[in-house]
Amino acid sequence: MAGTLNDRQPDDEPAPDRAGAKRARWGRGRRLLLTGGLLAGLLLIALAAGFFHFAASLPDKVAEPARRTDAIVVLTGGSGRVSTGLRLLERRRADKLFVSGVYKGVDVSELLRVSQQAPGWLTCCVTLGYEAETTYGNAIETAAWVQRNGFGSVRLVTAAYHMPRSLLEFRRRMPEVTIVPHPVFPDHVKQDEWWRWPGSAHLLLGEYGKYLVARVRALVTGPLQAAGVSG
């Protein structure tokens, strides 16, 4: 009998709802975009909050200026660092001074002359390190020197904005050594009102980024107990 259900041909099947499937895919894509945008926004907020905390927590004074340590360590790369280290040595805050990251070819006498210090007796107490090119390298180079000399404490001299990353790298490399921070405050870095000075803002943003990279590396590779261990 024509027209019965048993006689229905394949062409009589209802057409798939292509428009509905397209709307469903579009809805899923929209939800993914919204979720990704929300996560990106939260990440930006977290990074911004972290930067403001970083800038606000930078040292604004030398906490323990009179404390003696076994050695003084100066990280090159900014104004006032070497001269500060030499003054501390002259004032007997330590018996030895290590300058990390010196350009090859620079000797102690030239360093003292450039820093406007009379060579005199200071020459015999200063050691230069030529291997380091980064803060990470400074920590490796200094740790090896500290280990060779059996020192248990050092005064770390570097710029205030550079101090958080330096302390992170140094304490990771030398967990059993007492590290006393001695920040230097370059005139060109407007630390208190950095938002009013594009140069200072750019410098602090760059340093914050490097600090985050150092934190991630420390979390991934873990603490290092020996100067000779790579990581």
Automatic annotation (TrEMBL):
Organism: Rhodovibrio sodomensis
Protein name, as recorded: DUF218 domain-containing protein
Residue intervals passing through the bilayer: 32-55
Classification via Gene3D superfamilies: HUPs
Keyword annotations of the record: Membrane, Transmembrane, Transmembrane helix
Basic and acidic residues: bias regions: 8-20
Ranges where the DUF218 domain occurs: 70-194
Protease among keywords: no
Residue numbers spanned by region Disordered: 1-23
One Pfam family of this chain: DUF218
